[in-house]
Amino acid sequence: MTIVAPEDDSWAAAGPGDGTVRVHGPRDVWAELEDVHARWEQAGRPTAYRVELADAGGPQHVISGAGPKALAWTLPPIDLVPHGTP
After folding, report:
1. Which residues pair with 11 in a beta bridge?
2. In angstroms, how far is the first alpha carbon of the chain from the final one?
3. How remote is the C-alpha of 73 from its chain's centroid?
4. Count of helix runs (H) and strand runs (E) in the chain
5. Could you give the residue ranges of the DSSP H alpha helices within 7-86?
6. Which domain of life is it from (predicted)?
7. Which strands make up the sheet holding 71-75, listed edge to edge?
8. Phi and psi dihedrals of 19, rounded to 5?
9. For 55-64, how does the pLDDT look when each residue is reduced to its tens digit (9 = 90+)?
């Protein structure tokens, strides 16, 4: 499995078998993934998420559950998301 953050020239690659993970770049994307996994565990391993879409292209919110252990993210407005060129 490889996780890439191209804008930061960073990646993490987990190989099969011995559980070795190689990381590269200034951003530790593997540590970030482990943090999200720990938060997911603490939130009770939610299986459903709610997405709130703002009017007029505002930010979108992704939420699982309620209370202090709920997982929540704010996504940038779609017009701010970089798009690849064909």
Report:
1. 4, 24
2. 26
3. 9
4. 1, 6
5. 29-42
6. Bacteria
7. 50-52, 60-64, 71-75
8. 80, 15
9. 766 778 888 8
State how far the Cα of 28 lies from the Cα of 47, in Å rounded to an integer: 26
Domain ranges of the chain: 1-42, 45-86
16 near 2, Cβ under 8 Å? no
User: pTM value?
Assistant: 0.64
What pLDDT score was predicted for residue 8?
Answer: 92
Place of tokens 């309620």: 66
Within 10 Å of residue 69's Cβ, how many Cβ atoms? 13
Residue 53's pLDDT band (boundaries 50, 70, 90)? confident
User: What is the rounded CA–CA span in Å between residue 83 and residue 13?
Assistant: 24
Q: Is the pLDDT of residue 86 over 60?
A: no
The type of residue at 64 is S
Tokens of 40: 């997911």
